Amino acid sequence: MEDQKGRSKLFRNIWPFIAATFVFLLVLVAIKNPSFVEDYYSEGFYTVFARILSFFSRLLPFSLWDIFWFLAIFSLLVGIALVIRKKFKLRKLLLITGQILALLYAYFYISWGFNYFRPDIEKRIGLELQSVDEKLFRTALDSVIVMVNKSHTLIGNEDYNDIDRKVEESYSDNSSILDIKYPNGYRRPKKMIFSNLIVKFGISGYFGPFFNEINLNRRILPMEYPFLLAHEKAHQFGVSRESDANLVAFIVCTKTSDRRLNYSGYLALLLYFMEDAQYFSDYHEYLRKLDKPVLEELRFRQKYYYGLQNEVMEHAHEKVYDVYLKTNQVTSGIENYNQVVELAVSWLVRESKLSE
């Protein structure tokens, strides 16, 4: 009887690690079989799971993920305090922490993480990648500047609900182009509970896979809202890589008649272009091509975030997220965000014969 109890206790202690090991082996298989992941996970299991999970998470107006990580950190600190006061054994705390981390690892990939191993977006939407030399880059940048100036419009907080509806309409209208299964559940944008703290890390929004919910920072500027909203919704549709989500958000914002979405999409793309163009000797010439209202908004944006963000905290977040992305086969890490430039140039060429 004691042997049976011992085996039962052992199993209770190690089953989370068995589950994590099993998922880890599935990850190794998934990395080598992107087409299988696409057919059976991204377009199969995940679409069903997303509908179920988002149905329940949308019922609550606050961020479940924010509450989750707050309680997790608080519980860990309480456990450490109890160990220090010798009211809890360190070995027990380490075991419980390890079990929870193992289960979270397994749940992350089951709930959303396997999307990292599906084929790249250019393969899914039939986009021929262009070799972006300096001439093509400059041509594309000029085109983006023209579209930013042309689409400029004022966006206010009072527009958010209507913008959310317009973004959804664009996703629906362009679902075949984007190769997504619309509606893929429910997408209720939620505001981060700890926005003032999170903004110091340079985080404007994130998709919470544990609860299949979209979270946006309260401190983002209205002109950024449509693009950032579309970006996080792209993640909810199973678009995992940041560059891919940026391209999807750009397409969603620009393939619609809504001027607010157009402006936010082109403006976001312009920022990525200008980051790459900053090493050009004539960089400031491109700034002079921007209409005064656009340039003023960009200057305001720069000062606004300079006053909110903390350089040390932002750098720490970038390092951690860089490791996270590389662990999930995004070899470029944090630089993956800016790789949208190559994708966007290829898209612009396809849409408007930009290279001619």
Structural class: mainly alpha
User: What is the residue-averaged pLDDT?
Assistant: 91
Biggest pleated-sheet summary: 3 strands, mixed
Low-pLDDT segments = none
Strand content: under 5%
Give me the number of helical elements. Answer: 16
What does the overall shape look like? globular
Cα-to-Cα separation, first versus last residue: 81 Å
Helix content: 55-70%
Describe this structure in words.
67% of the residues lie in helices and 3% in strands. It is mostly helical and 356 residues long. It has two domains: 115 residues, no CATH class; 230 residues, no CATH class. Strands 1-3-2 form a three-stranded mixed beta sheet, covered by helices on one side. Strand 2 and strand 3 form a beta hairpin. Helix 6 runs antiparallel to helix 12, helix 10 crosses helix 11 and helix 11 crosses helix 12. The longest helix has 31 residues.
What distinguishing features does this structure have?
2 domains, mainly alpha, 356 residues
SSE map:
Layout: H1 2-32, H2 34-57, H3 64-84, H4 90-111, H5 121-124, H6 134-151, H7 160-173, H8 175-178, E1 189-191, H9 195-198, E2 205-208, E3 213-216, H10 225-236, H11 242-254, H12 259-277, H13 283-288, H14 292-308, H15 311-327, H16 340-352
Parallel strand pairs: 1-3
Antiparallel strand pairs: 2-3
Helix pairs in contact: 1-4, 6-12, 7-10, 10-11, 11-12, 11-16
